[in-house]
Amino acid sequence: MIARHFKRALEDLLANRFLNAVTAVTILLAVVIVSAAVLLYVNAGDLMNAWQQGTRIMAYLRPEASGGSPALRRSIESVDGVQQAVFISRDEALRDLKARMQHQASLFDNLLENPLPDAFEIQLKPSTEGWEHIEDIAARIRSFAEIEDVEYGRQWVDAVQELPNSSGRWGWR
User: What residues pair up with 119 in beta bridges, in sequence order?
Assistant: First the structure.
């Protein structure tokens, strides 16, 4: 009896090949699109959380500031939320840049002087307080007289925050 049903089903499938193929492709595309969207959403959320937990701020010193004074390092490390501040001299930064861009070494051939500033690489303590907390830390570091600019990927954060969150609202905050 079951064999008769399978035979009938196979005959119907063969008789309506085009319709069955369109149905199968439609179901396949729906599953692929939904799966890709879920995968993107989960990975973007994980990436944002991981990035927030290991956030790094670069603080660039003014040209006239004394390179990497211990007092400035202690002041930066005293800011609530800062785990560690590491001084990177302009010469060290240029060496690192040249090492990273070995295949474009000709770009550095005509440099008359080092264009990079001295900087502090600042590692933040892991926090669940959100991006506003990171912005507050960056603003406090920017307020030091020796600091010319602070960079922590603000434009990238703003772009990612526009994605819908798990509650269906826009933004990761």
Answer: 60, 88
Residue entry with tokens 């090492």: 99
Q: Is the pTM of this model over 0.70?
A: no
- The values of phi and psi at residue 122, to 5°, are -110, 120
Copy the structure tokens of residue 72: 């400035």
pLDDT per position as a tens digit, 49-84: 666 566 788 999 988 876 668 888 899 999 988 889
The answer to whether 75 touches 146, Cβ cutoff 8 Å, is no
Contact 53, 130 (CB under 8 A): no
**DSSP class of residue 127?**
-
- Please give the Cα distance from 44 to 165 (Å, whole number): 10
Mean residue pLDDT of the chain comes to 82
Cα–Cα distances (Å) from 34 to 40, 44, 108, 134, 161, in that order, read 10, 15, 47, 33, 21
Q: Distance between CA 2 and CA 164 in Å, rounded? A: 49
